[in-house]
Amino acid sequence: MSTSLLEIVDLGDGEVVLQRADDDSEPLVSIQFSEEASAYLMENNLEVAKVMIQAGIQAAAKIAEMSGVEVDGGDSTEPARQRTLH
After folding, report:
1. Cα 72 from Cα 58, distance rounded (Å)
2. What do you get for the CA distance between the two ends of the chain, in Å?
3. Cβ-count burial of 3 within 10 angstroms (0-12 exposed, 13-18 middle, 19+ buried)?
């Protein structure tokens, strides 16, 4: 992934996105909170999303470090696999 300034934006409809600040490309990450979740979070969606994004970045960095893989923003020819973590 190229080095660029990233921003976390609350879209106001229960969705929070991580996007590049310098272009209009598709968001890198999108987190959607249901009305029920928003009520449970007492409207602190942005703060929770920030923590979720930070944890995801840290986990991805650790996985890349452990596997010795260099993280690249290029398109992969391997199809994405869906995984469920319980």
Report:
1. 16
2. 29
3. exposed
Question: Do the Cβ atoms of 42 and 34 come closer than 8 Å?
Answer: no
Query: 2-50 pLDDT, tens per residue?
Result: 577 999 999 988 899 999 998 889 999 999 999 899 899 997 999 999 9
Residue 73, Cβ neighbours under 10 Å: how many?
Answer: 9
Q: Which residues contact 73 (CB under 8 A, 6 or more apart)?
A: 1, 2
Tokens (6 digits) for 72: 């690249």
- What residue type is assigned to position 54 of the chain? Q
| Model confidence pLDDT, tens digit, residues 60-69 | 999 988 887 6
Q: Which amino acid is at 45?
A: N
R_g over Cα of the chain:
15
